[in-house]
Design a protein that fits this description.
The chain is α+β, with helices and mostly antiparallel strands. The longest helix is centred in the N-terminal third of the chain and has 36 residues. Strand 8 and strand 9 form a beta hairpin.
């Protein structure tokens, strides 16, 4: 054991500081200016996601606000203050007593709110999973309430220090004390809001809805209109089919961890300066070690026509060369690897949160299949949006500055004529298919709900609902395959033959509905054999 534990703390603090300085230096390096908006956005998300940033900002505001109001008090007319009905006009003893009471009260309430937060986190960890604790810690209202309490405490201490025992030209900062009273009333209202918010935030439906909203936002970001249709046209060039035949160099990550972000613009500039194509085969959210091959760098042959092109930097010619030490150093700044999986713009991470809630709800200790059904329904909504949208292209191109404003095709009354637009293949990323998302989300729930007929029937209904968003045959075959797996899971794990027959009948009706060419214009409603026989007997009795 370490005889000096404080040395370990300072060592960790020094290591954290060095890592932050390294990240900051990479942020402002010349090679990363192309991705500066993305890097600043990620830095801002880290600050907002930390539990200390907003409370610290509130403390700073309180520290700065106190001397400002005290200075205004020194230059403010006393008679004007007395004309304000709600303003404080007492002596120094009353002002000192009020500010002391406010400081003590808000600090005690801040401790109470922190205790409530810890209790909620403990309950959420056991019910929803430890990986969803970050959603509660990064909840902005909770951070703001705690920040308001300690900010008011800091403000009250500084105002209390400025109250003098004598009252000559200036003695009691009346406006500052009045503002402190107003802040105390606001803190009392925030306490009521905090309790109501915490009660609402631990409800399963609220947690599922927040995870669903995050997933939908990420889907709109990746599958939105920003997806470059031009790149789909540029894919027609020969490099897409031939770059695998070029000389390849394996790419290793700079460290072990989770792949959180890929800065494409910086990576595109790097590949053009070395004359090649980077093919990344690892997806966002994947865990990699420093010995994993996450991709390859394919060096263009010397006879390739793009070698005569120029990069955005005029003095740099695109002459193919093998990766060297500078390449790997710059490549480390083009990707972001973290030691823990954090909230990012990764769609799989957002969908995985709802999957984790459903799987934990199906555990024997919780046994809440209704929550699992709600997760299935939310996942269905997210997947249906993905199926209707255009997936992002895995191919990313470098377009020289003189060609960026030039359209690739010009429509004429008779035909479409291609123009001389240069687009050089630079980066190829991994793009998951919709079948992979279905397998890792709904398929994972199916594997844990093999003995629960309620969830299995909800999964069957989910396949029918996803069929309304199908746009090609591959998606339809994915749904039919998943229905087959749902039916097999029920046959092998359900206890009663009646339940097995009921699930099989629903799966067969769902398969027939999906295969029907006009199914997207019809309504699906499962009718069991028992319900159908009852209906027939009632109709016969009525006749």
């Amino acid at each position: 054991m370490d005889k000096h534990p404080e040395n370990g703390f300072f060592k960790r603090l020094l290591l954290f500081s060095v890592q932050r300085m390294k990240a900051f230096s990479q942020l402002w390096s010349l090679q990363t200016l192309a991705d500066l908006p993305d890097r600043l956005r990620n830095l801002w998300q880290e600050l907002i996601g930390s539990y200390w940033f907003i409370p610290t900002a509130c403390v700073i505001v309180g520290i700065l606000l106190a001397p400002v109001l005290v200075t205004i008090d020194q230059h403010f007319d006393r008679e004007t203050v007395r004309e304000i009905t709600f303003a404080f006009t007492g002596d120094d003893d009353a002002a000192r007593a009020i500010m002391t009471s406010i400081a003590g009260a808000v600090l005690g309430v801040a401790g109470t709110t922190f205790s409530i937060t810890i209790a909620v986190l403990s309950m959420a960890s056991s019910q929803f999973g430890p990986r969803l604790l970050r959603n509660f810690l990064t909840d902005t209202p909770n951070q703001f309430v705690l920040g308001a309490f300690i900010g008011t405490f800091s403000y009250s201490l500084l105002v209390l220090k400025s109250i003098h025992k004598y009252d000559v030209a200036f003695g009691v900062p009346q406006l500052a004390v009045t503002f402190g009273i107003i802040m105390a009333i606001i803190c009392a209202l925030l306490l009521v809001y905090f309790v109501q918010h915490m009660v609402h935030s631990i409800q399963a439906s609220h947690v599922i809805q927040n995870a669903s909203n995050d997933a939908i936002n990420n889907i709109h970001s990746w599958y939105g209109d920003y997806c470059d249709i031009q790149h789909q046209r540029d894919v027609e060039q020969h490099d897409v089919e031939q770059f695998h035949q070029w000389q390849a160099t394996p790419i290793y990550p700079p460290q072990s961890g989770y792949l959180q972000h890929i800065y494409l613009e910086s990576l595109i500039i790097l590949t053009q300066e070395y004359g090649g194509v980077v093919h990344l085969q690892s997806n966002l959210g994947d865990y990699v070690t420093d010995k994993n091959v996450i991709g390859h760098f394919y060096q263009r042959p010397t006879y390739h026509p793009n070698n005569r092109q120029k990069t955005a930097t005029p003095q740099l010619a695109v002459v193919p060369r093998a990766p060297d030490g500078m390449f790997w150093q710059r490549f480390a700044g083009c990707i972001r690897i973290e030691q823990r999986l954090a909230l990012s713009n990764d769609i799989a991470y957002s969908l995985g949160q709802m999957t984790e809630i459903a799987v934990r709800a199906l555990s024997p200790g919780i046994n809440d299949p209704k929550t699992a059904v709600n997760c299935v329904q939310s996942l269905t909504s997210c997947l249906s949006i993905m199926m209707r949208r255009q997936p992002p292209s895995p191919y990313h191109f470098y377009v020289p500055a003189e060609h960026r404003d030039k359209p690739p095709y010009t429509a004429t009354p008779k035909q479409v004529v291609a123009q001389q637009r240069v687009a050089i293949l630079a980066v190829v990323t991994y793009t998951p298919k919709i079948s992979e998302f279905i397998n890792t989300s709904l398929g994972e729930i199916r594997r844990y709900a093999a003995a629960d007929t309620m969830v299995l029937k909800a999964l069957c209904q989910a396949m029918v609902n996803l069929n309304y968003a199908c746009i090609n045959q591959a998606q339809q075959q994915t749904l039919l395959h998943e229905l087959q797996l749902i039916e097999r899971a029920g046959e092998e794990n359900l206890s009663y033959q009646e339940l097995i027959d009921d699930l099989s009948a629903m799966c067969q009706q769902a398969k027939a509905f999906i295969i029907d060419k006009n199914s997207q214009h019809q309504h699906f409603h499962y009718v069991s054999d028992f319900a159908a026989s009852i209906r027939q007997s009632l109709q016969a009795h009525t006749k």
